Amino acid sequence: MHYAHKKVLITGGLGLIGSHLARRLVAMGAQVTILDALLPGHGGNLFNIRDIQSQVALHLRDIRDPLALDGCIPGQEIVFNLAGQTGHLASMLDPQSDFEINVSGQYLLLETCRRLNPTLRIVFSSTRQIHGRPRYLPLNEDHPVQPMDFNGIHKATGEYYHQLYQRVYGLEVTILRLTNTYGPGMRIMDAGQSFLGHWIRLLLEGVPLPIFGDGGQLRDFNHVDDCVEALLLAGSRPEAVGKVYLLGGSEVVSLLELARRLSGFTSRGGYALIPFPGERKRIDIGSCYGDFSAIANELGWRPKMDLNQGLQMTVDYYGAYSHHYLQRRT
Amino acid sequence: MHYAHKKVLITGGLGLIGSHLARRLVAMGAQVTILDALLPGHGGNLFNIRDIQSQVALHLRDIRDPLALDGCIPGQEIVFNLAGQTGHLASMLDPQSDFEINVSGQYLLLETCRRLNPTLRIVFSSTRQIHGRPRYLPLNEDHPVQPMDFNGIHKATGEYYHQLYQRVYGLEVTILRLTNTYGPGMRIMDAGQSFLGHWIRLLLEGVPLPIFGDGGQLRDFNHVDDCVEALLLAGSRPEAVGKVYLLGGSEVVSLLELARRLSGFTSRGGYALIPFPGERKRIDIGSCYGDFSAIANELGWRPKMDLNQGLQMTVDYYGAYSHHYLQRRT
To answer: Following DSSP, what letter does each residue of B282-327 receive, concatenated?
Structure first.
C-alpha cells in the first residue's frame, strides 16, 4: 500500500523496465508521471504503455533538458531514475552522447532535485557492468569498480553523483546495479541495447542466433517483473536509503545454453558460433553473474521467474506484437 | 639517461609539480613542451620556470581547447598529464568547471592522442582522494573507489578514461595517485588548492594557522622532488605500463603536529583550533595516508625528503619569493 496516492516520476518510463514499473504503480493507485525522450536507438516505445497511457502523465522530453526537469520534479515524492544510454558498443562509437545522457543528464537531474525538491526519494538504475571483467564470481557490491567501456565509466560516474547528493545534500538515494533484464517490451530491433532482445527477433525471423566466441560465457538474467519488484522495494523500504544493491538471476547459464533453449522454442534457425568481432572483444567482460544476497537479506528480494518460462512468455509476446517493435522511427 | 633527447609534453607544467618536473627533464636533456592555461585560482605561475623558460616550449593554452591539443600532441613521446582542477571545496562550489577540466578535458586529450599519436606514453596524475573516507589505513591501490566530492568523482572518471584508452586503444598509461604534495612553487595565495600552501602564507604573515576540528586527522605529505622522482620512474620503466600506484609520505603526522612544526619555524602566530566549516565537514575524509609498497617494490621508489627539512626549505623559499605568489591576476 506504500505507493497508493504517491506522486512518482519515472525517467525512461517508456522502456522495458519503466513501462512495467508504471503499470504496477498505476495498479497500486500511484500518480505516475513518465519522462521519456523516445530517443532513436533506445528502448522507449509508446506501445509499452498502450493499456495505461490515459492513466499516466506523459512528458516526451529529455533529462538533458533543464526546462523539462524543472517542470517534472517539483511535487514528486519518488523518482525512479531509469533514463540512460545502455549500449556498450554504442558508447564506444559515440562516447559523447553516452556521456551527455549518463553523466551530464544525471547531474542536471540531481541538481534540479536539490534546488526544487530536496526531500525527494530517488532510486537509480545502475548496472553491474561498472565492475568490468570480474576478478571473482559471483560479483557482489564490494567488487572493485573497474569499468571496461565508456558506458560503464559513465554509469559509475552517475552512481558517484547520486551518492554525493545523498551524503552532502540529503537526497534519499538507493542504487540498484541491474543485470541483463528481459521481458515483453524490450528492444528487439538490434543488439544495441540487449543481445537477448536481438536474439528474439532473429529467432522469430528464423535466422541462426550468433554466439560470439565459444559461447562459454556465463550470465544471469532478470525477468522484468523481478526487476520491478526490486525497484518497488528500493523505493519504499527505509533501510534501503543510502544503499547499493546488486541484482542477480535465479539461474546462471552459458550463452550457448541460452541459445539452445531459445532456439528450442521454434523449429527454425538454430544458432551459430562466430568469431568475436574485434570491437566487441575489446570491451567484453567474459563470464559475469551476481550475488544478490545483500538485497535478499535486507529487503527480502529474490528473483522468482523461472528463466525458461520467462523466455517463453517473452518470445510469445513478440510472436504477437513484434511489428510494434520493428518500426524504424526517423 | 632515459629522457635524454626525448620529446616530452607536460600539461599543467607551470604548477608546483610540473615545473619541477620540467626542470629535471631539461637537466637530463629532454625536449620539453609545457601546456598550461594559467587559470586563475590554479597553481600555474610563470615564476616557477624563471630559470628554464628559454629552454622549454611554452603554450599558454587550455587542455579543453582542441586546437591547442592538436598543436601539442603530435611528435611527443611522453605526456606527463598533470593539468587539473585540484580544489575539493572549489569543485563543490563550481562542479561544472571541475567537470570540464577533469573529465571533458581528459577525454579530449586522450582522444587527441588516439587520433594523432597512439603510441604515446602517458603518465596521469590522479589523487588518493578518489578513495574517499578510508575504510582502512594505510590506503592502498585496492581500497574501494568511493569519492566524496565532485573533484574526487571527476578524477576517478579521468582515471577510468585513461585505463580505457590503455586497454582498448593501446596507449601506454601509468596512473599515480598523489597524496599532498608540497614544496617551493606551490600555490600559497589561498587554501583553494592546498591547505598547507595557505598555512605557509599565514605563517609568514604572522597569522595563527587555522586547524579545523581537533587537529587529530592524520596525513602524509610528499615533497615535490619525491613526487617528480615517481613521475620519472612511471614514465620510463616498462613494468609501469598499465599500472596504478599510490604514493605516500615518509612520515604520518596529525594536522595539529604539522601546525606545531610549522609554527616552530617562526616566533609569531602559532595556531588555533576552530570549528569545522559545514561545507568542508561534509566532504572531509578524516585521517588519510597511503601505503606506497607497490611502487616501492616494483619501481624502487620511496620518499626521501625528511618532512621537517622539506617544510623548512619551503618556508625559506616563500620567505624570499612570496611576492611572486601573492600577485592577484585578473
So the answer is: TT---SB-B--HHHHHHH-----S-HHHHHHHHHHHHHHHGGGGSP
Distances (CA, A) of B286 to A134, A298, B208: 31, 29, 22
Round to whole Å and give the CA distance between B177 and B138: 14
User: Are the C-beta atoms of B42 and B64 separated by less than 8 Å?
Assistant: no
Q: How far is the C-alpha of A295 from the C-alpha of A237, rounded, in Å?
A: 11
Cβ count near A92 (within 10 Å): 19
Among candidates B136, B164, B141, B80, which has minimal Cα distance to B298? B141
pLDDT band at B330 (very low <50, low <70, confident <90, very high): very low
B164:A148 CB<8 A: yes
Cα→Cα distances A67→A31, A70, A73, A115, A285, Å: 21, 5, 10, 13, 38
What confidence score (pLDDT) does residue B98 get? 97
ipTM field: 0.94
Indicate if the pLDDT at residue B181 is higher than 80: yes
User: Is the preceding peptide bond at B138 cis, omega within 30 degrees of 0?
Assistant: yes
**C-alpha span between B122 and A237 (Å, rounded):** 46
Which residues of chain A does B135 touch, with a Cβ-Cβ cutoff of 8 Å? none
Q: Along chain A (330 residues), what's the average pLDDT of each consecutive run of 10 residues?
A: 96 98 98 97 96 98 96 98 94 96 98 97 97 96 95 98 96 98 96 92 95 94 98 98 97 97 89 89 90 98 98 97 81
Residue count of chain A: 330
B229-245 mean pLDDT:
98
> CB B157 to CB A153 under 8 A?
yes
Task: Quote the minimal CA–CA distance from A11 to chain B in Å.
Answer: 23
For A166-203, give the secondary structure using H, E and C.
Answer: HHHHCCEEEEEEECEEECCCCCCCCCCCCHHHHHHHHH
Buried b (16+ CB within 10 A) or exposed e, A139-149: bbbebebbbbb
Q: Among partner residues A150, A160, A283, which is closest to B156 by beta-carbon distance?
A: A160
How crowded is residue B274: how many other Cβ atoms within 10 Å of its Cβ? 12
What share of chain B in percent tops pLDDT 90?
91
Strand partners, A7: A31
Do A298 and A239 meet the contact criterion of CB atoms below 8 Å apart? yes
- Residues on chain A bordering chain B, Cβ-to-Cβ distance under 8 angstroms: 92, 95, 99, 103, 107, 142, 144-150, 152-153, 156-157, 160-161, 163-164, 167-168, 282-283
B287 CB neighbour count, 10 Å cutoff? 15
Are A168 and B149 a contacting pair at CB < 8 A? yes
B169: closest chain A residue by CA: A282
pLDDT class of B329 with cuts at 50, 70, 90: low
Q: What are phi and psi of A223, to 5 degrees?
A: -65, 145
**What would the grid cell of residue A215 be?**
559461447
Q: How far apart are CA A134 and CA A289, in angstroms?
A: 9
Helix (H, G, I), strand (E, B) or coil at A241: coil
Helix axes B195-205, B255-263, angle to 10 degrees: 30
Using the predicted structure, report yes or no on whether residue B99 has a pLDDT greater than 60.
Answer: yes
Nearest-Cα distance to chain B for A117, in Å, is 19
> Please, what is the average pLDDT of chain B?
95
Query: Average pLDDT of B55-65?
Result: 97
- Per-residue pLDDT tens for B247-302? 999 999 999 999 999 999 988 889 999 998 888 888 888 999 999 999 999 999 99
> What 3-state class would DSSP assign to B70?
helix
